Amino acid sequence: MSHPIDVVISWVDGSDPVLNRKRSRYLEKGSRSDRISGAHTTRFASVNEIRYCVLSIMRFAPFVRNIFIVTDGQDPDLYDDIRNHFPERLESVRIVDHKEIFEGYEENLPTFNSISIGYMIWRIKGLAENFVYFNDDVFLVRPAAPEDWFVGNRPVLRGRWTFPPYRKKFGRFIKRGIHRKILGNSGYHQKISFILQQWEAAYLTGMRFRFYLLDHTPHPLNRKRLEAFFDLHPEVLKKNISYRFRSRDQFQMTAVAYHLEIREGNHHLAPAHLTYLHPSYSTKTLLKELTECKQNENIGSLCAQSLEMIDKEIRDDVLDWMEQILMIEPDNKQRSL
C-alpha cells in the first residue's frame, strides 16, 4: 500500500448525563428537542454501535493504519474488546476531542451537530492524506481492500447520478409557507432532507444539471483537497460549523468532497453496495434487507440507523450476525435494553 489509509468515526454517548445537561442548555428557551431539527434524543442514543463499527474495521480492513474516534469529552472504552481480539491494534486507536478539530473556532463549541463536526475532521492532527469517514452506525460486513476506497491516490466515489430535486425543493417551500404564514405555526421545523443537502452541496461546487447522490456508506476522502477548498472558501466552513444543531441551511460535507473530486477529474465511480436499515421500515422490509445483506457477497457494509428504535427481534438478529462474522462475544449489557 503506497499511501496510508486512516479511518475517522464520529461518535456520541447519548446516555451521558453531562452531555444531556449541556445539550439542554443550548436548546431555545421553551423548545422541545423533538421539534428542532437534529436535537431529538434518538440522534444521540445508541446500543453500542461503535463497538461493532471499530471491530469490523479491524477484522475486515486490517490495512487501516489508525482509527480516530471524534467525540466530546467522552470515551467508548473499547480497550478490553480490542485487547481480547486485536491486541496488536491497541495503539492505533485514538480518541479525538472536539476541542482539537475546532481549534481556532472554539466559539462554535459545544456542538451537537454531526454535519458541523464532519466539516472539521480533516483537521485531526496526524491524519493521513487518504482517510475514510464512518458514522458509528456503519459496519463493514465483508473483507475490504485498499483499492475499494482509493485508486491511484484518488477516492472511490460510491453512489449514483441523479437529477436535481427541484420538485421536492418547491414542495417543501410551499409546505413551510402554509405552516408559518397561513396556519400561524411560527415554530414549524421541517425534517432535514438528506437529498436536498447533497444537491445544494453539489450546486456549490458548480454542478447544475445533475448530481452524484451518495448513501450511508464509508466515505473515502482526501484531506489535502478538503483543506485547499476551505482555505479558498473559508466562509463555507464558518457558515456550516456555526449551527449547534442540524440545520436545513447546511450542506453535506461528504457531498462537497465528492463533487470536488468529480470536478477535478476523478472518474473512480462505483455502486454503493450497502444495506440500509431504518426504524421506519416494516418488519418485512427489514428482514428482507438483512437477509439480502447476509447472502449477497457484493454488499460490503451495513448501516443500521437508530438501531435502538428497531424492533428488538430484528436488532438482536443484526447484533447476533455481527458477533458471528466478527468472531466476538455478545454485548449482554446492551441486549438487555
What would you note in describing this structure?
The structure is a single chain. By secondary structure, this protein is of the alpha/beta class. Helices cover 39% and strands 16% of the residues. A five-stranded mixed β-sheet has the order 3-2-1-4-10, with helices on both faces. About 2% of the residues have low confidence.
Please describe the biggest sheet, giving its number of strands, its sense, and whether it closes into a barrel.
Answer: 5 strands, mixed
Helicity, in percent?
A: 25-40%
Query: Could you list the spans in which at least 5 consecutive residues all have pLDDT below 50?
Result: 30-35
* Structure classification: alpha/beta
Strand order of the largest sheet: 3-2-1-4-10
Radius of gyration: 20 Å
What general outline do the C-alpha atoms trace?
Answer: globular
Give the overall pLDDT as a whole number.
90
Give, in order, the helices and strands.
EHHEHEHHEEHEEEHHEEHHHEEHEHH
Strand content: 15-25%
Question: How far from one another are the termini?
Answer: 42 Å
Count of individual beta strands: 13
Number of helices: 14
